[in-house]
Amino acid sequence: MAQAAPHAVLLPSLPEYRSTVEFVESGGLRIAYERVGEGPPLVFVHGAAEDSRTWQPQIAGLADEFTVVAWDEPGAGRSSDLPEHFSLASFADCLATLIEALGLGPAHIAGLSWGGTVVLELYRRHPGLVQTLIMIDTYAGWKGSLPAHEVGARVAGAREMLAAPPEEFDPTLPGLFAKDPPADFVPLLAAMAADVRPATLRHQLTIMAHADLSDVLPRIAVPTLLIWGRLDARSPLTVVRQFEEAIPDTELVLIGDAGHLSNLEQPERVNEAVREFCRAHPPRSASWMPDKRPARGQVFRRTARHVED
C-alpha cells in the first residue's frame, strides 16, 4: 500500500503527534487525509484556500480521545486536481466515500467556512454518516446566508485576486482574524497559501456565490454545535443567528477575541467546546472500533444552549 510523508508540522508550540498521509479513491480521484488517535470518529473539513494543515491544533489537541481525521479536499493539499464541472455535490460525495472507506460513520463532522457548506451538502445527501454537526464560522452558501450586495462584492474581489499574475497571486482572503494573525501560525498560513491552486479557489468561490443550502437547516435532525468568532467579519453573527433559529437542536459557543479562523486564533477554546459537545453525544454505533473497520485493502496508505466567553 502506498504511503506518503505527512505535511510538515509547523507549529512547535503544539503537543507532538505522529501521522502519515493516506489515500482513498473516489471516482478516479486520490483523496488524501491524515488520521490520528483512537476513539469516537471526528472528521474535520477545511475551508477554501486551505488544506488539512489548518486543523493541526485540533489534531494535536483532540487525538488523545478521538479518532481525528482531516482530509485534503479534491484540488487541495496532496489530493488530485479538480475535474472539470466538479460540483458541491461532488465534494460531498467524495467526503462520504472517505467516511465509508474508513468505516467511521456515523461520525462527528466539523466544517469551517467553505468546509461547513460542504458538510451541509454531505448531510443533505448522506445523513446516515453524520452523528453530529459542528459548524465553525460557516455559511449555508454565500447566497444562502449573505445579502446579494455582499455576495456581489465578494465575487468582484475574488475576480480581481484571481486575475493577478502568478508572481503576485495572494489567496489570503480579507477579514480572517480579529487582529493580526497569531505569530505562531504565520508559517503555517504562508505554507498553505503557497500551495493554493488558483483553479481550485476559483471553482470553490463560484460554487459558494451560487450555493443556497438554507433549506437544509430546518431539516437537520442531529445535534449541532455552532462555534463562531464573536468578531468574525466574513461570516458575521447574523449568519450564526440564521443557523441557530433554523436548526432544531443547537448549541452556540461564541469565542471572544476571534475572527473567521477561530480554530487558529483561539484553538484551546475551540477544542474545549468540541470535546465537551462530542462527549455529550457519543456515536450511535461502534463502527469506528478497530475490529469493525473494513479491510485495509480498501484504503491506500500514502435545544438551544448558549455559551459565551
Number of strands: 10
Residue share in β-strands? 15-25%
Report the uncertain regions: 290-305
Largest sheet: 10 strands, mixed
How far is the N terminus from the C terminus? Answer: 46 Å
Helices and strands: which structural class? alpha/beta
- Domains (count): 1
CATH superfamily: Alpha/Beta hydrolase fold, catalytic domain
Helix count, DSSP H or I runs of 4 or more residues: 10
Strand order of the largest sheet: 9-1-2-4-3-5-6-7-8-10
Order of helices and strands: EEEHEHEHEHHHHEHEHHEE
CATH C-level category: Alpha Beta
Give the oligomer, counting copies of the same chain as homo and different chains as hetero.
Answer: single chain
CATH architecture: 3-Layer(aba) Sandwich
CATH topology: Rossmann fold
Overall pLDDT score: 89
